[in-house]
Design brief:
two-stranded parallel ribbon, 7 helices, two-stranded antiparallel sheet, globular, 50% helix, 163 residues, mainly alpha
Length: 163
């Protein structure tokens, strides 16, 4: 899943068994292909299980400077939104916590339906006060050149915004 700062689910792939690693699911997803082809501009945040790519920022495995420590702290504070989104989903739809006792195909459909219903709830301020959740964001624009290596992009962001 991919979510935004309002906990809205922007992308959900629900066709893999739970034992498959998130990075494998992402690598084989349409959204990954779209980012790889440069059709989307922007950044996604992933944990250390994901590869660092020009559009997929991961934390520094072993931060060696104060700027890298700051980057990792901000990364963790921002990436927690997806974990909170999972928590909200499980609270809203307890069947997602206890497990679905149905066929895998039906489980995929149920999961996607819950994601849609969750987004409707967010838009209608159901359960959550979405206005309190929204973080005022400035549009930040910068050019890192034609970088194919996510580590160079991460280093540029780290130096430009965390030094």
């Amino acid at each position: 899943m991919i979510c935004d700062v309002k906990y809205r689910i922007l992308n959900c792939v629900a066709k893999w068994p739970g034992s498959v690693h998130d990075s494998r699911i992402f690598r084989d997803s349409r959204i990954s292909v779209v980012f790889d082809n440069g059709q989307y501009k922007g950044f996604l945040l992933g944990d250390s299980g994901y590869p660092c790519k020009p559009y997929l920022m991961t934390p520094y495995p072993v931060p060696s400077t104060p700027a890298e420590v700051k980057f990792n702290n901000c990364h963790a504070k921002t990436r927690v939104l997806i974990e909170q989104t999972f928590g909200i989903l499980k609270k809203r739809f307890s069947c997602l916590s206890t497990g679905l006792r149905t066929t895998p195909d039906k489980a995929c459909s149920i999961t996607l339906a819950r994601a849609v219903l969750h987004n409707i709830g967010i838009e209608r301020n159901d359960i959550l006060d979405v206005n309190e959740l929204f973080v005022n964001q400035e549009d930040v624009s910068f050019d890192v050149g034609d970088q194919r290596d996510g580590k160079h992009v991460r280093d540029y962001i780290c130096q430009a915004f965390f030094s």
